[in-house]
Amino acid sequence: MTIHFVNIFKGIAMVSMAMLFFSCKDNYKRVGEEAKKEIFPQGVAKNFVLTYTEIPENLSAEDTGSSKILAVISGPLRNDFDNLKFPHQTFPEGVLVEIFNERNERTTIQADQGIYFTATDVIDLQGNVVIKGHDGKMLEAPQLYYDQENEWAFTQEKFKFTNPEDGTVMDGEGMDIKKDLTFLNAHKTYGLMLIKEEKDD
């Protein structure tokens, strides 16, 4: 009877060892960050300058004419992922966007980094975003989208808008604005501060 129990215990021990041995196999299913496949850009450009132009009129093969500069995008590094299903370009080391209006007046948009979605013509600007108009107006925000086709910028983040024309500074959260800072639609404002000093008579 005792031998029978000993054999049973030996059998259980052997099965347990076998289960322990087979359980060492890596059946772990990786998800999240571990499951991401590393994607490399199809092209890398350093100290790049991208110029977007248009020709005012349709020209024939023998005509000569000058093109008009609409915008210039520049920066220290550009990664090109236009070969993906959702094509885009990244600017991980900072980006400067210069926009020109009909009178060739310049508005600049600068950020620590950016992503240009070529399919939608929208630039996602992130980190210390600053828009400066030709007239001295300035908008500051931590993140901002610029729609090149509609010439419109918008954000849901907090912002600071400085207008030297009327000497005011506005703080708010969420806004839409034209490319040249001529129109501001603030979703929420925290107050307006006067910065212009009144001259004594």
Descriptive notes:
This protein has 201 residues and is mainly beta. It is 10% helix and 50% strand. The chain has one helix at residues 2-22; strands at 43-54, 68-80, 89-91, 95-100, 106-111, 113-117, 122-132, 138-147, 152-163, 168-178, 184-194. Strands 2-3-6-7-5-4 form a 6-stranded antiparallel β-barrel. Strand 8 and strand 9 (152-163) form a beta hairpin. The longest helix is centred in the N-terminal third of the chain and has 21 residues, at 2-22.
What are its keywords?
about 200 residues; mainly beta; globular
Assembly of the depicted chains = single chain
What's the Cα radius of gyration?
Answer: 30 Å
Portion of residues in beta strands equals over 45%
Distance between the termini: 118 Å
**Number of E strands:** 11
Number of helices: 1
User: What is the N-to-C succession of helices and strands?
Assistant: HEEEEEEEEEEE
Mean pLDDT: 80
- Overall geometry comes to globular
Structural class: mainly beta
As residue ranges, the low-confidence spans are 1-26
Main sheet makeup: 6 strands, antiparallel, barrel
Helix content: 10-25%
Could you outline the blueprint of secondary structure elements for this entry?
Elements: H1 2-22, E1 43-54, E2 68-80, E3 89-91, E4 95-100, E5 106-111, E6 113-117, E7 122-132, E8 138-147, E9 152-163, E10 168-178, E11 184-194
Antiparallel strand pairs: 1-2, 2-3, 2-4, 3-6, 4-5, 5-7, 6-7, 7-8, 8-9, 9-10, 10-11
Short structural description:
With 201 residues, the protein is mainly β. The chain has one helix at 2-22, and strands spanning 43-54, 68-80, 89-91, 95-100, 106-111, 113-117, 122-132, 138-147, 152-163, 168-178, 184-194. It is built from 1 helix and 11 strands; from the N terminus they run αβββββββββββ.
